[in-house]
Structures are given as structure tokens and as C-alpha cells.
Amino acid sequence: LPKAGKAAGGEQPEAALLPFPQDLLLAAAFVSDAQYNRNIPFKTSPEAVRLYYLYNHWIMRTATYFFIFLNLSLAVFEEPAVYPLPFLVTSLVEVLCLLVFFGRLVHFAKVTLRNVFWKDTKNICIMVAILLSLTDLTICGVLRIYNVRSIRWSRIVRPIFLINFAESRQIRRAFRSIRNTLPEITYVFLLFMFSLLMFSLMALKLFGERNLQTAEGMPYFKNYLEIVFDLYVLVTAANSPDVMMPAFDFSSWYALFFIAFVIVNTYIFMSLFLAVVYNNYKKHLKNEIRKLAYMKHRKMIEAFNLLKEEEGAQFVVREARWKQLVKLVAPDTSNSHRELLLRISDDEQKGFIDKKSFVQLADLLNIQVITLKIRSHPLGQWMPRVYKSAASRFLRSMVRHRGFVWTYDIIILINAIFIALDEETPYISYAEWVFLALYIAEILLKVYTYEPRAFFGKNQFWNWFDTLIIFAALTATILNTTLKSTTKYNSQQILDIVFILRVLRLIRIVDSVQRFRVIMNTLINIVPTMLTFGGLTLVVYCIFAIIGMELFYGKIQFFPANSNAPHALECGNPALKDSLFARGKYCKNNFNNFASSFIVLMELTVVNQWHDILCGGSVTVQAAKLYFIAFHIVMVIIIVNIFVSFILEAFFVEYSLEKSEVETAIEQKIQELGMGVQEDELQDEQLLDNMESAEHDLEGEGETKPQSKGLVFKIASKRYRTVDALLQRMFEAEIPLEDEGPSFEEILNLSPATAVPSNLTSESAA
Q1: pTM (2 decimals)?
Q2: What tens digit of pLDDT does each residue of 158-171 get?
Q3: Residue 764: per-residue pLDDT
Q4: Which residue among 33, 93, 383, 745 is least crowded, i.e. fewest CB within 10 A of its CB?
Q5: Which N-terminal stretch is annotated as signal sequence (predicted)?
């Protein structure tokens, strides 16, 4: 799930908040909510504000997530269990989790208005889920006393806690998008089902009376419902061309029927599903984000009104108050960073910040600016004559030259060829030591050239990656060679590690090709947005896994290859004799515990051969196929398509858009102050930073830096601190800053479909 970071004042103990005036604390709470897009209408009394700071404390949020996932993970230890624990232990852990959830809910009730709390559906859902879980746990405990097995039906409500706590607004937004998209999807799905039923009826009339048989000797297209199912599977291409072959063998002309079916249903209708989902998802997402943008704007106006003072004909916030506010909102921000933000907000250095500049503070705080100290190399201080000699300068200029990077790119490619060759050849084995020596020499030369603390800075991902991979490979290779020299060597695991580390070294080529780097950095930047759908997928998987365990537990058993157990070849179920499931040795694909259920659901999501897995699950009754079809509709047709839509939109935003006005203002001010990092390698790319660009600029005495000491700033490659900040980049230009917009109540009452207030122009509303 996306991590918002440490909220304003949230990481400070309550005692640390006491010296600050009440209006400043309240304003900081509004600014923090605007920065992290929290839409909690909290009370404004002094006690409630301090409780609100505590509620948003990062430890409180982390603890909430910990107990949510602990509660979900209990399914691993409960019957049917991967790692069985006594019922008393799991029950006590569950009760502890429920107490934490209840305490979190009570805390939330203390900081919000009473009428708002009881009108909020998510609070009611949490209370109902707690009550159902306790009731089910009590009933199950009583029945176990009398040795009566019961179904833990309340486990299916556990994902409700992940969805409905205030911290999970991203997942709730995804569910709302699905809910709002369902009507349009339903119409397309009904049309698709009509087409499927029509083709099935034609197939029954064409092939039902011709006494054809499948490759397994079963009647071919005799039963209408079986035909509907087989053609539904054909839409996913999982049983193609097997389902067609009996008819095709009978007459080549019958291939036209299946070709027409695939064109209409697989290519047209499935593409139509994606188009409808993409269009509707984008529309509803836009409205949701616009609503958040209005809320953020309104909160910043409220904060301004709390701190404003009259200055001539306008209201402003004094510089001293502004500094206190920023220090309270972002206590981890360095003094130099705060001064940079002040120079941007008070461009003319008047000693105050006007309303327009103040409203942009949340956006300024959401752009991650890296503060880098320019230091001279330690060797330049310890051995100045040697380090600044002509030979040393020539060596360092050679390392900084682009040709040095190209040389090692060629070495990596040659290394890739040697990795693919047979290691048993002595020359190939010796070559590995040569490549390791070259890579180690590269790292040592770079550390010699660039200031070590800058080279191994926390934002220098590729430098850390290279160093760790090379030295891990060196350690594993030495260990592997040492063990090989002994007669008792049989460690395939160490050899596997060596092979993997060698292959991982090839990833370095990604950082050497500019286009690869841009794409990779773009993907890294949208990872938090993808985590939203990771949470959504987790919810769906948990629900279907729990249902699957209750329906299919024990129906399929896995036996080792040499087992003599009865019906071992039929996965422990005589009904599977001669089935595709048994012949394919899919016995481990069962619902006998939570982990294997997740694996089966993952295989069903991939779709390939999912009808064979369904064959194993439906050994009890044919109606069990509805479970697998329902999962396919929910997960593959709806959620996967929405996930694709989400990734497309996020990638387009991150990859295509120019820098925002806020980013441009930050960069311009950095350059005006002469404290910028020049990124010569990305002249044509205005979106992303080179992950290693700082290493070329912070050597302390190179041609690119006039000063030898001091600070420089750069916007981080992962520019946005929150998912919402990235998404709002699309729509925030439509909100006029001079308009205070609707009130909190009006914004909260806006539906996702009508999230645009009427005071906007028709163009903006569109």
C-alpha cells in the first residue's frame, strides 16, 4: 500500500506541540491534510487537534497496518493451515487485532464530528465486521468444546478492515471506481453473454447430432451448458485449438464457425471491455481527483485564514509565522531546504507570503528536493600532492569521460556471452575472475574520482546496486571455488546463487542506455500507484481463497511421485481418473490451505489452462464451475482491465507531461541561486533525473561546479511524495487559485459523478 510519510507534527510527541500557539497547530493540521490529501473533517478544539496529531502519527498508522495484515495472515495458521497453531493462540491474536481496530475507531470518533462519524459508511462497516468476527469466534469456540467442526464464515469479512480504515483511501477509491464503472461494464457483458449464448446454440445445432467425440472419447457438443462453458473458455484462448479439432477434423469448413466466434468475442468484445473500462475509469478517477484537489485548496485557504495579517490592501502571512508553520508541518526538512521554499514563496523578499503563494505550500512540500553537500574528496585533504597531480587529474578525467561508461557497457555485453557459455571449460571459468577484477577496478576508480559520501548517497541506487552485486558475486565465487577444491562439495544452492548474481550484473546495462533509464525511472515513480491495485488484488484473493478453502478443502490431495497411496495418480479422488487435471499432474493446485489457494488463484488470473484447474475443483458438483467463472469475471475481466487502465494513465502522466508550474518554480529558483545540479545527460528529457547524475557533478572540483564547498539542490527522480500528488498533476490546472471554491460540506457531499461545482465554467466542468 502507498506510504504517505511522516505527517505534520504526527512524528512529534504531544509535549513537543505545547509551545506552539493553537492557531498555528490548527493551520499545520490543515496544511498536512492538504499535503497528504486526508479528507477527515476533524474537530478544531485544542484537545481534538492534539488527538488528531496523534491519530496521524506514523507509528499509529504503521501499527494499524501491522495488525490489519496480522489479522489477514491468521488464515495461514488456522485450519486448514500451512503452519498449524492451536485454536486458542489464533483466537487470542484475533481478539487482540479486533481490540486494536476498535481502539483505532474510538480514537477516530474522538477527533471527528459526531454526525459525520455516524454517517460515514466505513465506520459502520468496521463496527459490523468487529461484531461479526467476535460472534463467529465465540460460536466456533463453544462448538470446539463439544468437538463439533464449524465453518469460520467471518474470515471473509477480514479484508473489510484493510478497505475501510481511513488510511486506505487509495483502495476505497479503486473500489469506488469499480462500482461506478460497473453499469457500463454490465451492458457490454450482457451483450457479450447474448453473443456467447447465440454461438452456443448454433454449435449445438451444427455439431450435436453428428456423433463427434473429443480426444478423450467424450461426446462432443452434446450438452448446451457444456457448450456455453467450452466457448467461454475459448474466449480466453485457453482451450484453443483443442475445442475446435473434432469439428475441424470432420470438415475444414467448420473452422469458419470458430474463426467467426474468436473474432467477435475474443477480439471485439474483450477489446470493448478494455475500452469501456478505460474510458469510465479515467472519467471517474478525474472526478475523484478533482474533488481531492478542491479539498486541498480549501484546507490551504483555511490555514491561510488562521495565520493571515493585514498588509496594506491585502492579507498575508508573515515570514516568521511561515517558517514556524513549515517547521511544524515538515520537521525533517533541512534549514537550507526551508530557506529555498521561502525564497520561492517570497520571491521578492518582502518579508511576507501572499495568499496565492501560500496556497502552493502543500504542492511545494510534495515535491521531493534533494539537498546535497558539495565536499572535497578526502584524498585531496589527506594526500593533496598525489591526488592533485597531473597523473591523478588525467585518471579522474578519464573516469568521468563518457568513453569510460561505453567501455564498461561493452565489457558487460561480453560478460553476458561468457555467462551463456559452458562454465566447465577452463578458459570460461578463468574469465569470470577477469570480469570480477574489471568490475572491482571500476568501483574503486569511481570511489577514487567521486566523493565517497556522494557516490554512496541514499539516492544513488545504481551505485549501491553495482557495489553490492559485485562484492556478493565475489564472495559467492570465492566460496564456490573453495568448496569445489574439496572432495565433499555438493552445494547446488551456492552454485545457483553464483549464477543468479552473474546474471543480475547484466541489469547494469539498463542504466547505461538513456531511453532504458527513462522508462525504468518512470516505472519506479508509478510503483506507489500500482501498490493500490496490489491491495485491491489482495482483498479479492483473500475473499476467494477463503471461499475456495471452504468449498474444495480435501477434494484434491498431492502425493510424491513414488507414492503407493490409493488413488495417488488421481490426486486422491477417483472422480479425477483419466481427467486432464490428473494427467497434467496438477495435484498440487488445490485449496487445502491458504498459500496453495493463493497460488491457484494466481494461475487462474494468468488464464492459461485455467479450465483444467477448474476441472479439478469441480469434481464434487458441476455448479462449482460458477466459483471459477465468477473469479474470472471479477479478477480478469474487471480488475485486470482497470489495473491496465490505471497503469496506462499513470504512465502517460509520468512519461509525457511537462514539469508542473511548482516544479518549474523550484528549478528556476535553484538556478537563480546558483545552487543547481546541471544534468547534461538529460537535455532532451524534461521529466526524469539520471539516477547517477549527482555522481558526475559532486566530485568537488570538476569543471561543472564553480564552488568547492556548499550546498546544491535537485528534484529527486521520484519527485512526488504521494500517489495523489502524481494524479492531481493532471487536473489541478482547472482549479482557479483566486476562487476559494466550495465549503467543506459542499465538497464532502459531492458525488463522484458530479464532483465539479457549478461555479466552474462549462469548459472546466467538461
Answers
A1: 0.74
A2: 999 988 887 778 78
A3: 31
A4: 745
A5: none
Q: Return the beta strands (E) in 666-705 as ranges.
A: none
Determine what percent of the chain falls in helix, strand and coil, rounding each to the nearest 5.
70, 5, 25
CB 581 within 8 A of CB 616: yes
What's the CA gap between 224 and 196, in Å, rounded?
A: 11
Q: Is residue 711 helix, strand or coil?
A: strand
Amino acid code (one letter) for 399: V
State the DSSP code for 659: P
Distance (Å, whole) CA 275 – CA 268: 10
Q: Give the mean model confidence (pLDDT) for residues 161-188.
A: 83
711-738, pLDDT tens digit by residue?
555 555 555 555 555 566 655 554 444 4
Which phi and psi (to 5°) does residue 316 adopt?
-140, 170
Counting Cα atoms < 13 Å in the Cβ hemisphere of 31 gives: 31
Say what the pLDDT of residue 475 is: 80
Q: What pLDDT, in 10s, does the model give residues 584-596?
A: 888 888 888 899 9
φ and ψ at 719, to 5 degrees? -70, -35
Q: Is the peptide bond before 241 cis (omega within 30 degrees of 0)?
A: yes
- Location of C-alpha cell 477417483: 574
Q: Is the pLDDT of residue 753 over 50?
A: no
State the Cα–Cα distance between residues 201 and 221, nearest whole angstrom: 10
Joined together, the cell numbers standing for residue 203 give 454449435
Residue 219 pLDDT > 50: yes
Q: How would DSSP label each residue in 413-448?
A: HHHHHHHHS-TTSHHHHHHHHHHHHHHHHHHHHHHH
